[in-house]
Recover the amino acids of this structure.
């Protein structure tokens, strides 16, 4: 998003937490953050790609993360971005979503949802390059397919969405849906990396390879 | 001597930053539903308790043991 009108000025960016401080301040899920940090989803090729784009003039030198420690999507994806920052030397600053609603408002999913994590890549001189919201398009597609499959399994009408599941079937529907998507979380981490690569290579007009 | 029995109420595991949780509590408050809210973002113990029942807040545990996850038109938050 945001260029001239963003609330994230260079000075504001510097006010963000380091990952170490974010983790030290976390009330829950420290074990999850550590688990996903210690099980990196990045391949050597991914690392080489992120190093390559970081070295470009106008490449990503700063990364903003909007996060909360209670969120499953955050503890699954933020450690990947921590690894990217460590490998490339990019400066990572973490902002708690609920303490920074003005930043969140600039990155609402579909213009309305305060979905996290949000990762924003900036140049060294703080120009916005690209941003990633919540989950990859591939993960959203899988989620939509899982909703359709769960609906069909329960004999609900075709076209049923999460919002239109009858109340009597909701509990079974949610259990079915969770059982379908939970095993896919590892693949979703890979999809998130792929999407961040695509976002950066497109914005920087450089091939998506190392 | 008689004692008033303690009325069983639903336990609801929430995150206050979760829109679906907020909507559920607003609905219950409007309807006068009494509930025992346990905020999972405030302690690991409470989060671990909630995970015994599900992975998507709000998680409601009714007095008869029935468990419901999520609320309204959005998925809720994975914990």
């Amino acid at each position: 998003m945001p260029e001239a009108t963003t609330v994230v000025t260079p000075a504001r960016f510097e006010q963000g937490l380091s990952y170490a401080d974010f983790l030290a301040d976390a009330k829950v899920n420290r074990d999850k953050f550590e688990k996903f940090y210690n099980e990196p989803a990045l391949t050597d090729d991914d690392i080489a790609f992120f190093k390559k784009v970081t070295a470009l003039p106008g490449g990503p030198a700063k990364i903003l993360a909007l996060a909360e420690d209670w969120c499953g999507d955050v503890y699954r994806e933020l450690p990947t971005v921590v690894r990217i920052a460590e490998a490339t030397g990019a400066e990572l600053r973490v902002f708690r979503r609920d303490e920074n609603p003005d930043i969140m408002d600039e990155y609402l999913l579909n213009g309305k949802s305060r979905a996290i994590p949000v990762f924003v890549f900036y140049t060294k001189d703080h120009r916005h390059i690209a941003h990633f919201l919540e989950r990859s398009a591939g993960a959203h597609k899988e989620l939509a397919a899982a909703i359709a499959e769960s609906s069909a399994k329960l004999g609900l009408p075709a076209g049923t969405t999460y919002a239109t599941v009858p109340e009597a079937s909701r509990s079974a529907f949610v259990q079915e849906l969770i059982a379908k998507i939970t095993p896919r979380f590892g693949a979703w981490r890979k999809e998130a990396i792929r999407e961040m690569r695509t976002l950066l290579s497109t914005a920087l007009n450089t091939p998506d390879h190392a | 001597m008689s004692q008033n029995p303690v009325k069983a109420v639903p336990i609801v595991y929430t995150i206050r930053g979760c829109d679906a949780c907020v909507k559920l509590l607003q609905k219950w408050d409007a309807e006068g539903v009494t509930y025992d809210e346990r905020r999972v973002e405030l302690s690991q113990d409470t989060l671990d308790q909630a995970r015994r029942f599900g992975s998507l807040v709000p998680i409601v545990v009714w007095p008869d043991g029935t468990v419901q996850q999520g609320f309204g038109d959005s998925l809720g938050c994975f914990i």
Remarks:
- The longest helix of chain B spans residues 19-31.
- Chain B has a mean pLDDT of 89.
- Chain B has two helices and six strands.
- The domain at 11-78 of chain B is CATH 3.40.30 (Glutaredoxin).
